[in-house]
Write a structure and sequence with these properties.
The chain is an all-alpha fold. The longest helix has 32 residues. The structure holds fe (ii) ion (2 copies).
């Protein structure tokens, strides 16, 4: 079988303000090897949820995934850039902590996951809207927003693997094994989403739409990259993972129904149908064998798991609010409409 050639290293995005400009300018140079190079950029004046800071952070993280075409891979561990990244992270995470609020000592990860399984009767948000009345163009926009994550699905959480032990590790890897196609390259969920993009008449290139999406879409991925890359946030990474698995199945069902209503190509609905079934199973494994085992082994991580769940909801709600505000007023939710 001949596989279609894919772009491994994406191209650099366009700067969207002084912080992203500082990072992107730097990446056009060779990373200094033998001296510490301080990067001057004022993080304090930037909106932590704004496009400039989110894009700067996204580019820093991408150096740990696939890097960028023509960019010196030495930047990945450059202390000067990592120092700037730490300031971007501090600003973003301070805002997330503030907006998630206090986590009470009585709250348990188990109760938090139970809460997620209860679907509201009068649910609202993009998947409901798309199921009931969204247009094909809005569906395409939804794919574009989600392409940032789904084309690297499973990758941000995989960094948690060396930080887990015993049953939690075994069960977590079993779920990731499914995300990564269970040994079959054509079944990797990233590939299924690329197939969806092509079937929807969109560009399946990794990061192909990074210049088109708003800050809210970048923040969704930045949060999981942050959790994945920081060992001290491993509890939050697992909470985030649990939250995605628990909420995926019902959300995917609504999106599959939306695609049926719109008469979309089969490859589009296939991605979501796969998640209706797989994630219903994953949910059970994650709740009992991953989170259950982790917090019994390390009870101190209970509040971190809850933080990961609530932070996931926070950034998802911000994206949902953006999509609904745009669609309900008849505007494109992208930087410019898809042609
Ligand atoms: Fe998946
Ligand atoms: Fe899953």
């Amino acid at each position: 079988m001949t596989l279609a050639p894919i772009v491994v290293e994406p191209r650099l995005p366009e700067a969207r303000g002084p912080l992203s400009l500082a990072v992107l300018d730097l990446l056009t140079e060779r990373a200094p090897r033998n001296h510490l190079h301080r990067i001057e950029a004022s993080v304090r004046d930037s909106d932590p949820y704004g496009i400039d800071l989110q894009l700067a952070l996204y580019v820093c993280y991408e150096l740990h995934y696939r890097g960028f075409a023509g960019v010196d891979p030495g930047w990945e561990w450059n202390p000067g850039l990592l120092h700037l990244r730490a300031q971007l992270e501090e600003s973003f995470l301070d805002a997330v902590h503030r907006d998630v609020g206090e986590i009470s000592a009585e709250d348990t990860a188990a109760a938090e996951m139970e809460r997620l399984t209860v679907e509201p009767v009068d649910g609202a948000g993009p998947s409901y809207y798309l199921r009931d009345k969204g247009t094909w163009e809005q569906m395409q926009e939804y794919f574009v927003h989600r392409s940032l994550y789904h084309l690297k699905e499973g990758d941000p959480h995989a960094w948690a693997i060396p930080r887990l032990m015993g049953q939690a590790k075994a069960a977590f890897v079993a779920v990731e094994f499914d995300e990564f196609g269970g040994g079959r390259g054509d079944q990797v969920h990233q590939q299924l989403f690329a197939d969806l993009m092509v079937a929807a008449g969109l560009d399946a290139t990794y990061l192909g739409y990074i210049d088109m999406v708003p800050a809210e879409s970048l923040a969704v991925v930045n949060l999981m990259s942050f959790f994945g890359l920081h060992r001290q946030y491993r509890g939050a990474a697992i909470g985030h993972f649990a939250s995605t698995e628990i909420t995926s199945s019902p959300g995917s069902r609504r999106l599959a129904e939306a695609l049926d209503r719109l008469g979309a190509a089969d490859a589009c609905a296939l991605f979501y149908r796969e998640h209706v079934e797989a994630d219903a199973v994953h949910e059970q494994v994650v709740r009992t064998d991953v989170v259950g085992d982790l917090v019994s082994r390390e009870p101190a991580l209970n509040s971190d798991v809850i933080f990961g769940i609530r932070a996931h909801e926070l950034v998802e709600d911000r994206l949902a609010d953006h999509l609904m505000a745009c669609w309900e007023s008849g505007r494109s939710s992208l930087r410019r409409p898809l042609s």
